[in-house]
Amino acid sequence: MAYTRRDVSTLTRAERRRFVGALLALKRRGEYDAFVRTHIDHYVSDGEEGLRAAHMTPSFLPWHRTYLLEFEKALRRVDASVTVPYWDWTRDRTTSSAPWTADLLGGNGRRSDQRVTTGPFAHATGDWTIRESVTDVEYLTRDFGHPRRPVDLPTRGDLDAALDDPVYDSAPWDSTSREGFRNKLEGWGAGRGAASWRTHNRVHRWVGGHMVGGGSVNDPVFWLHHAFVDLQWTRWQRRHPGARYLPARPLGPTDPQEGRVVARHEPMPPWEVTPARMEDVAEIYRYA
After folding, report:
1. 48-80: buried (b, 16+ CB within 10 Å) or exposed (e) per residue?
2. Angle of the 221-239 helix axis to the 60-78 helix axis, nearest 10
3. Which of 6, 63, 169, 194 has its CA 20 to 30 A from that of 17?
4. Which domains can be identified in the chain, with CATH numbers?
5. Is the pLDDT of residue 87 over 90?
């Protein structure tokens, strides 16, 4: 029977407590840090050699859907009532609304060093030491709005611009693709500064601190953000019936992206799951 992922702002106090409790339990067991390492290991960009499965590639959405599901399974082994909630950043846009409350994820980092000092994931609690990262900082960091070069959260209009594109993805199948839903949602823009961070990417930039880069999973908001991104794939499918994941077939030897992009029926590392398998998950979960 399918379970439900809900908007984080609708969770009751008890539901918030159980969600946070499951996160902390995974951290104590070392399972949470293993998920962080998986993301770091698969953060491959355009300029690197080898297969790109997680970012700057068509499989961005099915890869993260699989990743979310694996994490959700781990949470539900701790507490079967828990699911990953989503953060609608087009609506809950203030630094004091959910999920930034003291009983959920805590608030912003302090100005001097971006250290998060409130909520259950503050370093002072002793429950959330950063062990897997691309820096040596042991405490969780945030820098809401990136005040040195300010950036705003994406709007509903920004999201609709991605959802309106009827094609899933297009050549050259990377961060420079100008057409296609996937990159418009993932958010790799041209130019420098705020213009180069759009939709999904801009949220990472707005939160700042650990949410910028391969170690972004160290901030639990990663899961809430990606659940909302995952919801957009479902909404896009409803808006464009019959539209499918692209590329449908492996790229040939004349294509510079041969061997670097996952086709619809090819497995995504580190799992044996294909993008085609992830296109319909209605039997597993739904969104409220």
Report:
1. eeebbbbbbbbbbbbbbbbbbbebbebbeebee
2. 130
3. 63
4. 3-287 (1.10.1280.10)
5. yes
